[in-house]
Design brief:
The complex is a heterotrimer of chains A (about 325), B (about 325) and C (about 290). Chain A contains twelve helices and twelve strands. With about 325 residues, chain A is an alpha/beta fold. In chain A, the strands form two sheets. Chain A has an eight-stranded mixed sheet, with helices on both faces. A four-stranded antiparallel sheet of chain A has the order 2-1-4-5. Chain B is about 30% helix and about 20% strand. The chains are: A alpha/beta (about 325), B alpha/beta (about 325), C mainly alpha (about 290).
């Protein structure tokens, strides 16, 4: 990532907390990252890593009661999203920052036609007539390559297959030409051939619309296919951040390494799949020191006491949260 | 009823299952969903066969048909020389002990109202396998075998994580000492790190107990790792069969190639170089005529549109295609026509 | 590898949550408890014998001696009211219990077996449900004759179809669950699956509706007694007391009002309690 690239979205020190049993616990801790213009940043992690919560925090879509942004800034378009009023936020949502989700069936309104929903996404943010909005909706459906778009415009979500619904959701998200697209596991529920189609299409649209994409997934294979840069999350923090080539060529954090060794591959035999022993710590029972230490084969006594910082490995922008591996890497 | 001498293998021949939806006086138009058509395969004792395909291909229906959780319409299922479809009453109960199933969803596979102990002891009681004490010990042994500590046995399912529940589901399947396990997407709902744990557990069990597996999955990487042989299904038919590594490295059928090429690989230097993928999977209620894949196939021509290709024999491989990749014998045969 | 991860609250917590969220549910609970205690300790609470007639003091308004007045036979309204509690609660509870048992069984069978059997049963249930409850009860009570047992049977019959209905729907859903399929794969017979795996997972839904419908049963009992098809005189039941009060409404308002209040309070208590129970098992509430 060159310094000359413009930053579209920047998160600094985000802490998102949930109230459990009367006390506040952080699901995302001190998270900082930036997404450049036209860049695809993938956030990869397993359940409990906090990746979805991060996306929801950006658009302030967390539940009203029981969740809050405890600290940090989300800088977009010269403003701190964390401090905007609800009214100002609804101006941003679907407009300059859009989001697509995993389950298109529950994200689309079953009682409205697809055309109406896309048109609604437009008229909420722009002063155009309904006819103009519908024309734009038709244009968008064609952009996402829905066949027979003219007639499909008047169909209901249940009349579309899973992959098509996902494309409709993408069309809705693109309606106002957002600068940033948040995609929360958009292809996880799709068949693998449909996933390939949707990913390719997302890539093409990103180029055409000049968007940045924040792509959340648990699948390292998908990450390798679409990302420019990758952030690996574990227990609410980023443990490794690197350009995609660097991450796969030189996975430095023990968790990243362990994930890659635990993944079976279709293109070659993986005789020894190495499972990661133990499990993710509960939000309410986070160990002191490094959150991954209890499962880490490289752990030292200091790991259990001192919380490690995210530190550059070299000057390519590759950051790692592991003093043990950093020392090894440099030595 | 026994057919010939058994050798512990499972033989499935021409399995067919159709569902009717709609119909009735006021309902929507009656449609026949051809979920499974003419499916045949063999699982020799102690081996694992993968069944892969996307939604609607019928793999789950095949899996359930083997255990008669869904009754097939036609075809035969012979396990260790015994006709599974014809078994009734006591004979069926005996068969049930030998063939078990592990499910995909760890949150739905256990009765929330029963403790783990109850869930594990129940099958033993129903089949009358031992005294109370023996049953209790067997249940505890099963839990230990799947890597959980004995003290969890008196807890309820909701107290466990997805991975742990999957282990419990496996323990329950093992408690009757089966010989064949039908695993329906057993790791699809789990995180990668947990998935690896469960796969390792299944491998250990396979070795230790000499189990055979029918492993249903949509994840080619997992299938490659676990299964000796694989069947690729599309819209209710097997389109390719063979040794897993060979099928995945040198696919004959265009659909297998498409499936393999679409599966993302954790290697950014090997990005998808798919030729344009046409269309989506048609509905199993409305399959295209001829070869069901032809509307999406880059090589479709002539016969493909009208006649279903048979699963042709090759050296250890089969593919249902008129124009498979690099198959000299068939190509010569074509030229001769 | 051991250790449990407990992230969701156990089921009993739901009940506590529902009660703490809804103050009225406490009212319902306390009220019902009071009514039950009245019924149990009736002989100790009632100031007079409910059957003792005393023509001298007939149709007296509420006084120190007769706190709620007397009826046309000079019997103490309060004592009759107290003993009437026994009838109402007994009839309501037993009728619902019978209806719940029979109805749920039918519902579970229909849901599990499915196919033609299910369609026939549902058709019959629909016929029964299309009768107004009171009319149905009336027909049956009239055929059987007036007595406590027949009253219970009549009311039970009217409530069977609703229970069958609400037992059937969750059965169909549960039938698809993997653990039921696992049971079949493990060789369990249908009786075991229905009784051990399906029933316990839906019984709370049924019981909750049972508590709500008990109120309905008590109202039906009162209505039938009002018409004269209930327990025959001279037993004190709220319905027959209201009937008597109805005849004397202009002269002796207390004869109709107090039994009506008693029914109102009982039905109210059951409804509040039933609502709280229903909230307790509502999965959306439980998730919080």
């Amino acid at each position: 990532m060159t310094q000359a690239q413009e930053t579209a979205l920047e998160i600094r020190g985000l802490r998102t907390e949930f109230r459990i049993g009367g006390q506040w616990y952080p699901a995302v801790r001190d998270l900082s990252l930036s997404v450049a213009k036209n860049e695809t940043l993938a956030i990869v992690g397993e359940s409990g890593s906090g990746k979805s919560v991060t996306a929801l925090s950006i658009l302030r879509l967390l539940p009203q009661a029981g969740a809050r942004i405890g600290a940090g800034e989300i800088r977009f378009d010269g403003r701190n999203l964390a401090q905007l009023s609800e009214r100002e936020m609804s101006d941003v949502r679907g407009n300059s920052i859009a989001m697509i989700f995993q389950e298109p069936m529950t994200s689309l309104n079953p009682t409205m036609t697809v055309g109406e929903q896309i048109a609604e996404a437009i008229t909420i943010h722009r002063k155009v007539s309904r006819a103009e909005a519908m024309a734009e909706a038709l244009h968008l459906l064609k952009e996402v390559k829905i066949p027979s778009a003219e007639s499909r415009l008047h169909d209901y979500p249940h009349q579309f297959s899973g992959g098509m619904r996902q494309r409709v959701m993408i069309a809705m998200a693109l309606a106002c030409r957002p600068k940033v697209l948040l995609a929360d596991e958009p292809t996880t529920a799709l068949d693998v051939t449909i996933q390939a189609q949707v990913l390719m299409q997302l890539d093409e649209l990103k180029e055409a619309y000049g968007m940045s994409v924040l792509f959340i997934t648990h699948n390292l294979g998908v990450v390798a296919q679409i990302a420019d840069r990758v952030a690996v999350m574990y227990a609410g923090e980023i443990v490794e951040l690197a350009a995609v080539d660097a991450l796969f060529a030189q996975p430095t954090h023990p968790y990243t390494e362990a994930l890659l060794r635990a993944m079976p591959r279709v293109d070659r035999a993986t005789e020894n799949l190495e499972p990661i022993p133990g499990g993710v710590p509960a939000v309410t029972a986070m160990p002191p020191g490094c959150a991954y230490a209890p499962r880490c084969p490289y752990r030292q006594p200091s790991c259990e006491k001192d919380r490690p910082e995210l530190v550059p490995l070299d000057d390519t922008g590759h950051l790692v949260r592991c003093p043990v591996r950093l020392a090894k890497g440099r030595g | 009823m026994t057919i010939g001498a058994g050798n512990g293998s499972l033989e499935v021949r021409n399995l067919t299952k159709h569902f009717t939806i709609g119909g009735g006086l006021f309902g929507p138009e009656r449609k026949i969903v051809r979920a499974v058509n003419d499916v045949s395969f063999t699982i020799p004792k102690g081996t694992s066969l993968g069944l892969v395909g996307e939604s609607g291909c019928g793999k789950s229906t095949v899996a359930r048909s083997l255990l008669r959780l869904i009754e097939p319409d036609a075809g035969s299922v012979i396990f260790d020389g015994t006709d599974v479809r014809a078994a009734k009453g006591k004979a069926l109960r005996q068969l049930r002990r030998r063939m078990q199933i592990v499910f995909q969803d760890p949150y739905s596979s256990l009765n929330p109202r029963r403790t783990i102990r109850q869930a594990l002891e129940e099958p033993l009681r129903v089949h009358g396998l031992g005294s109370g004490k023996e049953i209790s010990e067997k249940a505890e042994a099963a839990i230990a075998e799947v890597g959980l500590s004995k003290e969890v046995i008196d807890r309820y399912p909701h107290e466990f994580s997805g991975g742990q529940r999957q282990r419990i589901g496996i323990a329950r399947a093992l408690v009757l000492d089966p010989e064949l396990i039908v695993a329906d997407e057993p790791v699809s709902a789990l995180d990668v790190s947990v998935q690896a744990q469960i796969l390792r557990l299944l491998e250990n069990l396979r070795e230790r107990r000499g189990l055979s597996f029918l492993f249903v999955s949509h994840d080619l990487g997992v299938v490659r790792h676990f299964c000796d042989r694989v069947c690729v299904m599309y819209l209710g038919r097997i389109v390719e069969q063979g040794v897993t590594a060979e099928v995945l490295d040198r696919p004959l059928h265009p659909y297998t190639k498409l499936l393999r090429d679409s599966s993302p690989v954790p290697d950014p230097t090997a990005r998808l170089t798919l030729t344009k993928i046409l269309g989506e999977v048609p509905s199993p209620a409305d399959p295209p005529p001829g070869c069901t894949f032809h509307p999406r196939c880059p090589r479709a021509a002539g016969r493909c549109m009208t006649a279903i290709p048979a699963l042709e024999h090759g050296p250890g491989r089969k593919a249902a295609c008129y124009y498979p990749e690099r198959w000299p014998d068939l190509q010569t045969a074509e030229a001769a026509v | 590898m051991a250790g449990a991860v407990s992230t969701s609250p156990a089921r009993p917590g739901g009940l506590w949550l529902a009660f703490s969220k809804n103050r009225l549910s406490w009212v319902g609970l306390v009220l019902l408890a009071a009514i039950i205690l009245v019924a149990i300790f009736a002989p100790f609470i009632a100031p007079h014998d409910p059957l003792e007639q005393n023509i001298v003091v007939r149709l007296e308004p509420p006084s120190a001696e007769y706190l709620l007045g007397t009826d046309s036979y000079g019997r103490d309204v309060l004592s009759r009211l107290i003993y009437g509690t026994r009838i109402s609660l007994t009839v309501g509870f037993i009728a619902i219990l019978i209806a719940m048992t029979i109805g749920s069984t039918i519902g579970i069978l229909a849901g599990y077996v499915g196919g033609l059997f299910d369609q026939i049963v549902m058709g019959l249930l629909d016929v029964m449900l299309s009768f107004p409850t009171l009319l149905l009860g009336l027909m049956i009570a009239a055929m059987l004759g007036a007595s406590l047992e027949n009253l219970i049977i009549a009311i039970a019959i009217t409530e069977i179809a609703p229970f069958a209905r609400i037992a059937r729907a969750p059965t169909i859903a549960l039938k698809q669950r993997d653990f039921v399929e696992a049971g079949r794969a493990l060789g369990f017979g249908p009786v075991r699956i229905m009784g051990v795996h399906i029933l316990p997972n839906m019984i709370s839904d049924v019981v909750v509706m049972g508590s709500l419908w008990m109120a309905s049963a008590i109202r039906t009992e009162a209505s039938l007694s009002f018409i004269g098809l209930g327990v025959p005189p001279p037993t004190a039941t709220w319905g027959s007391m209201i009937r008597e009060g109805f005849e004397n409404i202009l002269d002796a308002w207390w004869l109709a009002v107090f039994p009506s209040l008693a029914i109102l309070l009982t039905v109210l208590a059951l409804n509040l309690l039933g609502d709280a129970l229903r909230d307790a098992i509502d999965p959306k509430l439980r998730a919080e």
